[in-house]
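Readers of this paper often ask what the protein records in our data store actually look like. Below, we set out a record of this kind in full and without editing:
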Amino acid sequence: MQKIDGFEIYSHEKSNRIIQINIKDEILEKLIFPFNKFDLTALELKPFTRFTIAKSLDDLTNNKLSLVMNSIVKDRATGCFVLGPKNINSKINDQFLVKLSTAVAHLIGNPNHDAMAGKYYARFHVKHEDTSDSYLRKAYKNMDLHTDGTYVNEITDWLLMAKLEEKNAEGGETAMLHLDDWEHCESLFKDPVGRENFIWGSPKSKNIEYKVEHPIFFLDKQGRPQISYIDQFPEPKNMKQGIFLQRLSDCLEESFNKIITKLPVGFIMVANNYFWLHGRKPFKENKELSRELLRIRGSFFIN
């Protein structure tokens, strides 16, 4: 693993496919000034400012960090990293984490417009009470394994999730599954139904008025399976598609090779969206439960 001054880089405790990147205090201190140059309104309304803070982060590593992060996310053998401060302190608040997430994302690619939030990122709470139309905010329901961007026209190569806050939370662990570790990948991929076009819609909260059509499975440039799937949004055209979706869902949730991990507050997870699936375990019921997450998803730079 390449070394970068000011960072610790090693395999994650739960899987060699996930790379842990810890930011040392001296780097965090040097980020405070360039990050303070722009408030969140500037980042939201002036896209070039996002690249400015991304360059500030990369410059501190002599442009090595962007190379390492891109090599991890694009490598089929890994495809995922977790990045965060070696030591949490009071300066690492929610605004700092939004800026750090923005910088990381803009060293990897161009974020999609998040229609749910109306900007390039979304922040959302998970709390005890919920009236939403999506599993995203339902604290006491299992969020089954899925990929993002299934119901939009934009290319969604990667997904970034950051944990901004968590209080009174027991359970709610992140579930991850790499396609190459999934016991049932070959049999599902070989079923021709999985390569038919499916219709994908979305609930009203997503603010997407159109529907899209695409298959669940497709090939990468090396002929390996990739996946675009979420359980809540496909609209089967017939019985065979409906039964295939049930089989797919069951085989994903029954996998013995899921990675169950806890993302600490202040940390960011970035994963390739075409061969990593992710989900969330239910929380234990607590009226004081509060978790806030940030999400950015987008496409790789083309150059």
Remarks:
- The chain is about 25% helix and 30% strand.
- The chain has a mean pLDDT of 95.
